[in-house]
Amino acid sequence: MIFSTLEHILTHISFSVVSIVITIHFLNLFLLVDEVVGLYDSSEKGMIVTFFCITGLLVTRWVYSGHFPLSDLYESLIFLSWGFSLIHIISYFKLKIKKRKNNLSAITAPSAIFTQGFATSGLLTKMHQSAILAPALQSQWLMMHVSMMVLGYAALLCGSLLSVALLVITFRKAIKIIGKNNNLLNQSFSFGEIQYMNERSNVLLNTYFLSSKNYYRYQLTQQLDRWSYRIISLGFIFLTIGILSGAVWANEAWGSYWNWDPKETWAFITWTVFAIYLHTRTNKNFEGVNSALVAFMGFLIIWICYFGVNLLGIGLHSYGSFTLTSN
Amino acid sequence: METLLNPSKTPFLLVPKPHFFKPSLLHSSFNPRPHSPFTRRPLSVAITCKLKTSQGRKNDGKKNNNISKKILLSDSAPELSNEQGKAKAEESGGGTWRVIRKLPRKVLSVLSNLPLAIGEMFTIAALMAIGTAIDQGEAPEYYFQKYPEDNPILGFFTWRWILTLGFDHMFSSPIFLGTLILLGTSLMACTYTTQIPLVKVARRWSFLQSADSIRKQEFSDTLPLASVKDLGVILMGAGYEVFLKGPSLYAFKGLAGRFAPIGVHLAMLLIMGGATLSATGSFRGSVTVPQGLNFVMGDVLGPTGFLSTPTDAFNTEVHVNRFYMDYYDSGEVSQFHTDLSLFDMNGKELMRKTLSVNDPLRYGGITIYQTDWSFSALQILKDDEGPFNLAMAPLTVNGDKKLFGTFLPVADTDSPDVKGISMLARDLQSIVLYDKQGKFVGVRRPNSKLPIEIDGTKIVIVDAIGSSGLDLKTDPGVPTVYAGFGALMLTTCISFLSHSQIWALQDGTTVFVGGKTNRAKAEFPDEMNYLLDQVPEIVESPISKQPGSIGG
């Protein structure tokens, strides 16, 4: 009883703290041109509080259920939320040494709150009680496999969201330019050209876009592009380890290291799509918008893999399945 | 070339000892041919690196005599000389010979084409997605019904497509396997034509001799009052390998990050090879054995491919000593256990083990898994007679997966409509009994010895006998696949490292610093600024180093 109360309290604290953090971010965005340092600091502290709250939540569940808290969808969502805040904390401390502002929180904080909000929302009320562990899950591999997968999802979602942000900015820019300069339109305006301009930054920017605003926007897209590549690479490592440890586990529990089970297959599809993303980065022609499009595709595929397969409740990974119909 | 293969000879760490060299050697090593073999290949990065360095070196060679002999040796790139050799062979041979020689290279360059590889990966992803969308391994009738011709999905997709293309067994269909094989050859071609040359280029390190070429780097900065030596020390502290010669400095870090993608590709090939071995050389089989009965492994195992060869262990007989389940307090099953004994042909016990889910039994290359269970029989006493064994039959009511039932006839067994007691069970723990009219009477646990009276018949449930569902397999591909897994994890992690290169040049009291990195482009400027902030400012008169050497 005391555990569930504690869990309840921790959920609420973390949820409300993240909401405050997001509000502060919006304030920073809309109200203040130069962000107030104090506000920024407090939002960072808020994320740290959130991180510890979710950690506490997971530990609580672990203690009273007696197994690693990753046996169903609710727990994995909470863990995903934890993964987002972890990424945030790591990037925060990494950048703090170099005294740079953490731009990632614009992605991580809302992601954390959305996953947590979904997990605690009414859709999944039935699953809040931590259930017993199915025979196939009683293995040390559970910890390795599922934690790696969920961390991988968290990092990949983060990275691909950065790419989506890049896409949004680029598309807006493209529309703007087409609206503004008709003479530019005549010169066969494709995305390849935008990219080309991106690369030949200073010269072209000075000739084509005279305002400094565009230069900042260019810098921002470049930053987004690079960070998204870095975080996706990290997530790809986790995903690889997760899939492979899952394969080793399957060879212990199910009789084969690969069964073409729907969840397995979709994880492999996700892996393939992000492998494509990493390959597009090796070629200058594909960098920027094209690779961002691949990342966006990967973003959708992660959700299919994470939710879609569970929603259907098919295959061997049926532990995490749930139904949205309330009865 | 020699130094390339043996890197220990090349670098000298932070030793500003000038070596002098013979200009003639340098010129001989720079053949004017290097462009042609490279323009043919999709090797943009390699080209730029190579041309830049060779050009720079050439100019330097003419203007100053300040490059060490050792460095020079490393400049004669092995692949260059190979190319030249091949080119000469082509020229000397006849026309047909040239075609034959060119053909594999053409195929290679097509296969190692990046868009093609990306296309292949997309195809595989799409095929897998289709494979999960269409139910696999059903009878043709199922597809006739689900994908009828008069109501095609998306206006064209009917069962004809599925059966012609083999999408009913996607993961063993020729299309899917063919794409995988194509991807495998692309992997090999890419590793051979693109990655390995790239590594050779990356391993060649070079000083930049002009401030302009340093300023052209992705990151560049100018330190007004600084010494390149201090910079070298700081870079070494940050984990860089630093080479210093006269006024110029070259430092790099994370070279392994450049090599690791090759390892990733090789690991993928290893996994593919192991999986092929698994698919062609395995035996599989599953069996449901009631507690107390035997089976011979070889009878259960069936080959999966043409490479499957049985071993002596196939003659082993397996005896199921006991099958039981553990339960949670709530009554749900927590674990299945099967106590197995293995006997050889002479009846000698070889091994005994209780296996459970996640804890298979391994013997002589054969693995036995606990995968399923079933209710075999119910042992009862009827009016203190018996015990009788009643066979339990699996029932499928409302899609219930595990429901077993049996029937005990009472009174007149010869009449056309026999009436009796029905017993149902979901697990081995509790049996639900119904009377002749089908009304619920009670629940009894096996071993409880508590009799129940139904329609005048006294029944005691003595025991519930389960059957263990076992999967057996041999898989010769597992060691290879596991080796591939290990290599893949390791190399993927190493691939995260970014190969950073830094050049610096002392010009009077000013130090020009430039650098680039291949992956961590976002962090690199921060890291560089952080490091450059630590470079101390010199107050005293500067160390001037051969002002003539700074040319071009």
How would you describe what is shown here?
The complex is a heterodimer of chains A (327) and B (552). By secondary structure, chain A is mainly alpha-helical. Chain A folds into 2 domains: 1-124; 139-327, no CATH class. Chain A contains 11 helices and no strands. Chain A has helices at 2-30, 37-65, 73-97, 105-120, 141-180, 182-186, 191-199, 201-208, 212-253, 262-280, 289-312. Chain B has 552 residues and is of the alpha+beta class. Chain B is 38% helix and 26% strand. Chain B contains 17 helices and 21 strands. Chain B has helices at residues 2-5, 23-29, 35-39, 44-63, 69-75, 78-92, 95-111, 114-133, 140-146, 159-165, 174-203, 211-215, 228-237, 256-281, 297-300, 478-495, 524-533, and strands at residues 219-223, 241-245, 248-253, 283-290, 294-296, 302-303, 317-327, 333-343, 349-356, 361-363, 366-382, 385-391, 393-394, 404-409, 420-425, 431-434, 440-444, 452-454, 457-474, 500-507, 510-517. The chains are: A mainly alpha (327), B alpha+beta (552). At the A-B interface, α9 and α10 of A face α8, β8, β11, α16 and α17 of B.
How would you summarize this macromolecular structure in one to three sentences?
The complex is a heterodimer of chains A (327) and B (552). Chain A is mostly helical. Chain A is built from 11 helices and no strands.
Secondary-structure content class of chain B: alpha+beta
Mean pLDDT of chain B: 76
Strand proportion of chain A, as a percent range, falls in under 5%
Average of the residue pLDDT scores of chain A:
74
List the helices and strands and how they pair.
The complex is a heterodimer of chains A (327) and B (552).
Chain A: H1 2-30, H2 37-65, H3 73-97, H4 105-120, H5 141-180, H6 182-186, H7 191-199, H8 201-208, H9 212-253, H10 262-280, H11 289-312
Helix pairs in contact in A: 1-2, 1-4, 2-3, 3-4, 3-5, 5-9, 5-11, 9-10, 10-11
Chain B: H1 2-5, H2 23-29, H3 35-39, H4 44-63, H5 69-75, H6 78-92, H7 95-111, H8 114-133, H9 140-146, H10 159-165, H11 174-203, H12 211-215, E1 219-223, H13 228-237, E2 241-245, E3 248-253, H14 256-281, E4 283-290, E5 294-296, H15 297-300, E6 302-303, E7 317-327, E8 333-343, E9 349-356, E10 361-363, E11 366-382, E12 385-391, E13 393-394, E14 404-409, E15 420-425, E16 431-434, E17 440-444, E18 452-454, E19 457-474, H16 478-495, E20 500-507, E21 510-517, H17 524-533
Antiparallel strand pairs in B: 1-21, 2-3, 3-20, 4-6, 4-19, 5-7, 7-8, 8-9, 10-11, 11-12, 11-19, 13-14, 14-15, 15-16, 16-17, 18-19, 20-21
Helix pairs in contact in B: 4-11, 8-11, 9-10, 11-14, 14-16
